[in-house]
Write a structure and sequence with these properties.
Blueprint: E1 8-9, H1 22-36, E2 54-60, H2 72-78, E3 82-87, E4 93-99, H3 113-128, E5 134-140, E6 146-151, H4 152-163, E7 167-168, H5 178-187, E8 193-198, H6 207-216, E9 218-225, E10 237-241, E11 248-252, H7 256-279, E12 283-288, H8 293-300
Parallel strand pairs: 4-5, 4-8, 8-9, 9-12
Antiparallel strand pairs: 1-7, 2-3, 5-6, 10-11
Length: 302
């Protein structure tokens, strides 16, 4: 199959994210709402006037005003018809950018990186649609799919279908995170929350658009790692496939110098990623395929 063709598949070693208790989702909903808008819908005044619960203005009736906004008490007190104008309530929209690149199908511990990403996406989706919020989803690393902002069951059904499609096959064309982050910046006009779930591997093309998002929105960057990406074990000769390019390479892991260079390069790469996320004013959360990712996410979002 040509590398230019975008194809998704469910990884054969898929384990799934495991159970996600509803009580934890409730706690995450509060935390995400505070990060995104600082408050829940109705807790903060939005610009302008409209339908809401907070009084913005009480003034004499003018031709064309909605008669349903007439204030009986003020009209009786002044002898002139008055209308109430409310401050509109702002609904928090969470934008989820989900990495579906082939490298997400890697995992040597309890589960694959894509399993952890699936779990994070489910938590974000459930939390985002609590309290009347909306969820929008953009995918990167494979077919660039978009689910427009929606609330309630429609948002969760769309996300579930998208997650069931899997991740990109090895060697599939990958445009990286940059185009999708640029798109999110164009579409997300009102301040909200942007959650990027990725292993942040491959080309370092994303810092600039992520900084632009960070200037207008709260950004939560969830980086997913696997222990074998940070160090090599001395197990002799290995044949490895680069999932992004599909290229096959052979290495001799019995060589101590090779293992040390690999660990040093991996640490340097992760340090660069962390530095770029700080520049983007993003909250950086690191999750692993080893251990309880959900508990680690909960600790990070306290």
């Amino acid at each position: 199959m040509p590398a230019s063709v975008h194809t998704l598949r469910v990884p054969p070693a898929r384990q799934g994210p495991g159970p996600i208790p509803a009580a934890l989702v409730d706690a995450f909903a509060l935390s995400l709402a505070r990060r995104g808008a600082g408050v829940f819908p109705g807790d903060r005044m939005a610009p302008g006037v409209g339908s809401g619960t907070e009084l913005a203005q009480l003034r004499p009736y003018q031709l064309g005003d909605d008669v349903r906004q007439l204030d009986a008490a003020a009209s009786a007190r002044t002898g002139q018809a008055h209308v109430r104008l409310q401050v509109p309530e702002r609904i928090l929209t969470t934008w989820l950018v989900l990495d579906l690149s082939a490298s997400m199908a890697f995992g040597t511990a309890d589960r694959l990186k894509s399993d952890v990403a699936e779990g994070v996406a489910q938590v974000v989706g459930r939390a985002a649609t609590r309290h009347g919020g909306r969820l929008a989803v953009l995918t990167a690393g494979g077919p660039e799919t978009m689910l427009p902002p929606r609330g309630g069951p429609h948002a969760k059904i769309g996300l579930k279908r998208l997650l069931a499609e899997g991740v990109a096959v090895d060697g599939a064309a990958d445009r990286g995170l940059s185009p999708v982050l640029h798109k999110a910046g164009r579409l997300a006009r009102q301040p909200g929350l942007v959650v990027v779930v990725s292993d942040f591997r491959g080309a370092l093309d994303w810092p600039r658009p992520l900084r632009a998002l960070g200037a207008r929105h709260r950004v939560l960057a969830v980086e997913i790692r696997d222990p074998r990406e940070e160090r090599l074990e001395p197990v002799g000769r290995l044949a490895l496939v680069d999932p992004e390019s599909g290229r096959l390479i052979e290495v001799d892991t019995s060589r101590r110098g090779l293992r040390e260079r690999f660990a040093s390069a991996a640490a340097e790469e992760r340090a660069i990623v962390a530095a770029e996320l700080r520049k983007a004013a993003a909250q950086h959360v690191v999750l692993s395929t080893n251990g309880d990712w959900l508990r680690a996410l909960g600790r990070a979002l306290r």
